[in-house]
Design brief:
It contains 33 helices and 19 strands. It is of the alpha/beta class and 803 residues long. It folds into four domains: 180 residues, Alpha-Beta Plaits, CATH 3.30.70; 216 residues, P-loop containing nucleotide triphosphate hydrolases (Rossmann fold); 68 residues, no CATH class; 114 residues, Serine Threonine Protein Phosphatase 5, Tetratricopeptide repeat. The chain starts with a strand and ends with a helix.
Length: 803
């Protein structure tokens, strides 16, 4: 979340000049100026601290634009306290001023304290850094850290301040001073410096273009462009505007308004924007400037319409309160406003064919939606196209507009539902953003599988690869190359915030069900979730609500009911919102539930059980299932999977044992798979490590078991074929085996000497001698594996001897 600190500069010195009661009165009034903007933008004032406040945006309810809200609140704090400052200067001679510090990051938030004293607050490094931003800010300014800046850079004007030293940080933190809102803000989405053509939206663009052609031919219409966040509604609208210009449409005939998440309670907010665009009105214009601009009617508004426009502007912007005309109120005002707005746009569109775009209509206030529904009727009479773009949120005002348009104007209505990009289109988008010749196929697959065809999600993951240095530009500066190994992709902050804001609109218990499901995995069985959640009575309702919110989907009914998260990033965001202590508990519960429900399928479920018990810090059971999963993969010759499972098991076992039988067994199993997979250097490093441990512990039986596989690899035609080293290790292992009376190790050492002479020494007589001894011991003790190897390899020497 985004954390905001604001304090009074030099409060101690000022307080010394006044009676304590007077200072208390001043601060009480000052707190109103500090807290009201925070509440206006739906932030939480967590603490009043004598001369300062701590506030945060993102809890208990998150919004996808919390960093933006925090900065807007800070700008209002600094601006709105100015009259109070002047009052104190005149009354007390005080230079009273405030400053604000802001930072964005991960925190632990909740009730902190004891039964006797507690508070709802946030803790973590992000809070400390926000405090540091405030402490280093100058009076009357707003200072933000790099993490906040990176999320809002296109929206505000900033002054870079360079690096700020912060206790506990090895490098200075880049800081920025907020100067104000940009006159022409850019888009938050997209990657600076990278441009990609629109992909996978040709059919939708053709539909919109045909509707635009209809407008040029005198036909009106209504279109709903529906898609979840990130599917490309705004990008499609940008491309449609270009098509409108090619058809001869003027910029003034393409009027756009955009819903704003923190403005949903402002009546007729979207129509404010339409009128402001029509008359080029700025939010900061004083009333006299607004009057002058309205008086100078644009070409699209006839003079005889001026009284109607004045009344509409009066009603919407409330700037003509000094008019002599009686002021209407209530239903009468609403009826006139509806009639006037309908008449205005009807006349404008009849003379100048129009497209009215309502972007992000899901954030419209109810009054805007009601007025828009009333105005749809003019599409029957004049060439105007109403384009409504919104998310599929049935509870939003936008959905009422859709229902009304579909029911009342079916002959004018078109609906475009955006679907995720196909796998091919997703790959094409990655290619257009990053031309990387050596990007491994598995990285492509990882990006596409995580983003599931969502262009915004995909762009943000690519941005993460760039910001993390995983991919960098090549020497030409035109293309990109992979700079580091890409193990996995962490969910970007922008997506985490977007997705958490969706979760926070759910009921508390429904959100908890989503979190539990995220622990189980991308897909999850109903029966497992039911047992873990222990909410059989309400679980069905919760799952239905999560499906309606398009967070999960039903994946299968047979052999049993199974659900899946629509996006892997959605699952990760839900998972990352759980405290670690609870995560461990949930993972243990899930593992135990799977054990209890599927006792006959433990090997099939071994990889899942290992994952859950490992994250649940149940080391013994985690190792059991990692080894079981590794053994199953090894039997299928799925060596990479076996290596992964054995490696994780070994990592855990190392923490609890040195050369115990379990540890040795894992070293040898993992080594065997590394050898079979051709990873000879890793193999040698692993076995050398085991040999060293054994020597430190004085365990010669383990030492010889670690030496023999090394000798085998050195003695055969591998990438590290070194017969002299193979002979030296084999002779030492043979000596130790005989000292220990270890017959199997003795037979294997002799077999290795057979290999050395076969491939390196080219002495078939000596090879036959070593091989014969190995075969004799193997037959005597029933060592079938070494017997098979020795028989196979001694044949080469007999062949060389013509025997």
């Amino acid at each position: 979340m985004t954390v905001l600190f604001s304090d009074v500069v030099g409060s101690t010195a000022m307080a010394e000049q006044l009676d304590p009661e007077e200072w208390a009165e001043i601060m009480n009034e000052a707190f109103d100026y500090l807290t009201e903007p925070v509440q206006r933008y739906e932030g939480t004032v967590a603490r009043l601290m004598g001369d300062a406040i701590l506030a945060f945006f993102g809890a208990p309810t998150a919004h996808e634009d919390d960093p933006q809200r925090a900065i807007l609140a800070a700008l209002d704090i600094v601006q709105e306290i100015q009259p109070f400052r002047e009052e104190l200067r005149q009354d007390y001679g005080l230079d009273f001023n405030v400053r604000v510090g802001i930072n964005t990051g991960s925190v632990v938030v909740g009730d902190v304290g004891s039964d006797l004293a507690g508070e709802y607050t946030a803790m973590g490094d992000a809070v400390n850094l926000a405090s540091r931003m405030e402490q280093t800010a100058t009076a009357g300014t707003i200072q933000i850290a790099q993490d906040t800046y990176s999320l809002v850079a296109p929206l505000f004007d900033f002054e870079p301040l360079g690096g700020i030293e912060v206790k506990g940080k090895s490098e200075p933190i880049q800081a920025y001073r907020v100067l104000g809102k940009k006159a022409d803000p850019g888009r938050l989405r997209g990657i600076e410096g990278l441009n990609a053509p629109m992909v996978g939206r040709g059919r939708e663009l053709d539909t919109l273009k045909s509707l635009l052609v209809g407008v040029t031919q005198g036909r009106g219409g209504v279109v709903s462009l529906i898609g979840e966040a990130g599917l490309g509604k705004s990008r499609l609208l940008d491309e449609t505007e270009k098509e409108w210009e090619q058809l001869g449409g003027t910029p003034s005939s393409w009027i756009v308004s955009r819903g704003v998440s923190y403005d949903t309670e402002r009546p007729y907010g979207q129509f404010h924007q339409h009128l402001r665009r029509l008359y080029d009105l700025d939010e900061s214009d004083p009333p006299d400037v607004v009057r002058a601009k309205v008086a100078a009617s644009p070409e699209s508004v006839h003079d005889d319409m001026q009284p109607v426009v004045v009344r509409a502007v009066d009603a919407l912007l409330s700037i003509y309160s000094d008019s002599d005309e009686p002021q209407l109120e209530g239903e009468a005002l609403k009826n006139r406003l509806f009639a006037d707005m309908t008449e205005i746009w009807k006349r404008v569109a009849s003379d100048h064919k129009m497209v009215m775009v309502f972007d992000d209509l899901h954030w419209a206030d109810p009054a805007s939606a009601e007025l828009l529904i009333h105005m749809l009727q003019i599409a029957e009479e004049v060439p105007i196209l109403f384009v409504c773009a919104f998310r599929p949120e049935r509870q939003s005002p936008a959905w009422k507009v859709r229902q009304a348009a579909e029911a009342d104007y079916p002959h004018l209505y078109t609906e475009i539902a955006l679907q995720p990009l196909t796998h091919e289109d997703s790959n094409a988008l990655v290619d257009s953003l990053l031309t990387i010749s050596n990007l491994p196929e598995e990285v492509y697959d990882m990006i596409v599988s995580k983003t599931d065809g969502n262009p915004f999600f995909l762009e943000e993951v690519v941005r993460t690869l760039i910001d993390s240095g995983a991919v960098v530009r090549d020497e030409t500066g035109m293309n990109w190359r992979q700079a580091t190994k890409i193990e996995d992709i962490t969910i970007p902050d922008t997506l985490q915030t977007l997705l958490i804001s969706r979760f926070d609109r759910l009921e508390e218990e429904v959100r908890q069900t989503l979190q539990l499901a995220s622990v189980i995995g991308r897909s999850f069985y109903y029966q497992v979730l039911k047992e873990v959640a222990d909410k059989a009575a309400t679980l069905d309702r919760h799952l239905n609500l999560l499906q309606r919110a398009e967070l999960i989907t039903e994946a299968a009914r047979l052999p049993e009911l199974e659900y899946a998260f629509r996006h892997e990033l959605t699952r990760e965001a839900a998972y990352n919102s759980i405290l670690r202590r609870r995560l461990r508990q949930f993972h243990r519960q899930v593992g135990e539930t799977i054990e209890a429900l599927y006792p006959e399928y433990l090997e099939e479920q071994a990889h899942r059980l290992a994952y859950h018990f490992s994250n649940g810090v149940e080391d013994e059971r985690a190792v059991k299932y990692y080894v079981m999963a590794g053994d199953a993969a090894a039997r299928l010759y799925a060596n990479l999977e076996a290596i992964s499972q054995y490696s994780r098991a070994l990592e855990i076992v190392k923490k609890h044992a040195n050369t115990a039988a379990e540890l040795v067994d894992l070293y040898l199993k993992l080594g065997d798979r590394l050898r079979l997979n051709g990873q000879f250097e890793e193999f040698i490093n692993l076995l050398t490590e085991l040999e060293g441990h054994a020597r430190e512990e004085g365990d010669r039986s383990v030492e010889v078991r670690a030496m023999i596989p090394q000798a085998t690899v050195y003695s055969t035609y591998t990438k590290i074929f070194e017969p002299d080293k193979g002979r030296e290790i084999s002779q030492r292992s043979l000596e130790i085996a005989r000292e220990l009376d270890d017959s199997e190790s003795e037979a294997r050492s002799l077999w290795n000497l057979l290999l050395v002479e076969t491939y390196g020494g080219l002495n078939p007589l000596l090879a036959v001698e070593h091989g014969g001894q190995a075969i004799k011991i193997a037959r005597q003790h029933g060592f079938r594996e070494v017997l098979a190897y020795a028989l196979n390899d001694i044949a080469r020497s007999y062949f060389a001897l013509a025997r």
